[in-house]
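Fold this complex.
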Amino acid sequence: METEAYRGEDDPGSHASRGPTQRNRVMFGPGGFLYVYFTYGMHFCMNVVTEGGGASGAVLIRALEPIGGIETMNRLRGGREIRELCNGPAKLCQALGVTRELNGLDLTGDMMWISDDGFRPGAIELSSRIGISAGRDKPWRFFVAGSPFVSPGKASPVRTHPILRRR
DNA sequence: TTCGTGATACCC
DNA sequence: GGTATCACGAAC
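Structure:
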């Protein structure tokens, strides 16, 4: 599991850094909604909007550990190993069938939602964010330490989260 | 490391 | 209108 945090106009790495546009308008809406964007001519990526109240911000979902629905995800991604199904932000959108049609979806509805399944990571590590040219200084990429299901992209430095460390 | 692929945003 | 850039992935 892996995420990245993106803030608003104070974060040069964020889509929201230059204010609201047609593309990023969902980021400026209420929290708990899905922000899906299209990039590089062929990829979708998904975020959870976090702020609301006129501010902007979102969490990019970069990797997931497949728990169920493996058959379906395999079909959507052309038959790959389980660890290759959701280990990247565009890969997981393909595996889950997330496209621009779901931009703005209410994540408190009954189509897609986030819930606590009881899993607790041993430790969470953080690093700089992947694939951005501005805002590399902020260590806002979070991932489960030692998980084989995080994206292959290398970022440094990597360090253990000072608060979320366990045991 | 290179390239596919096209929307987006911002500059005229 | 033109064009540089892009929160990526797969194949070299």
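Residues 18, 21-23, 37-43 of chain A lie near DNA strand B (CB under 10 Å from a C1').
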